[in-house]
Amino acid sequence: MSLTLFFLFSAWFEKCGIRHETSAPYTPEKNDVAERTNRTLLDSVRCMIISSGLQPTLWAKAVSYTTYVRNGVLSRASNITPFEHCIRHTYLWSKSLRVNP
Fold first, then answer.
1. In whole angstroms, what is the distance from residue 98 CA to residue 101 CA?
2. Looking at the predicted structure, is the pLDDT value of residue 101 above 50?
3. Count of Cβ atoms closer than 10 Å to residue 9 Cβ
4. What is the largest CA-CA distance in the chain?
5. Would you say 49 and 59 are in contact if contact means Cβ atoms under 8 Å apart?
6. Cystine design at 13: which of 18, 47, 86, 95 (Cβ 3.0–4.6 Å)?
């Protein structure tokens, strides 16, 4: 990634209130939040598949459903859901890209 592009992304992250953190490549154990989220999702999927008696071939559908449900649940950090947070940032970002004739 070029240095100019890096600074453009950094400025955009700061403008949107996004905290950008990096980690060493190929070290998933350094990314605690993503690893914890993946474990939570997979634990939920395992419980769903086992308790419902569904076939393991429906694993992908169960992951999609679990992710959908998780994105609709309120976060401790704010009073809005992750889905609402994403939509709000997408709207603000797309609004900043509009060019007036």
1. 10
2. no
3. 13
4. 58
5. yes
6. 18
Domain limits, the chain: 30-101
The mean predicted confidence, pLDDT, of the chain is 76
Given a cut of 50, whether residue 68 has pLDDT beyond it is yes
Q: What six digits make up the tokens of 98?
A: 């509009």
68: enclosing H helix or E strand: helix 59-71
Q: What is the pTM of this model?
A: 0.52
- CB burial of residue 41 (10 Å; 0-12, 13-18, 19+): middle
DSSP 3: H
pLDDT for 43 equals: 92
**Residue type (1 letter), 30:** K
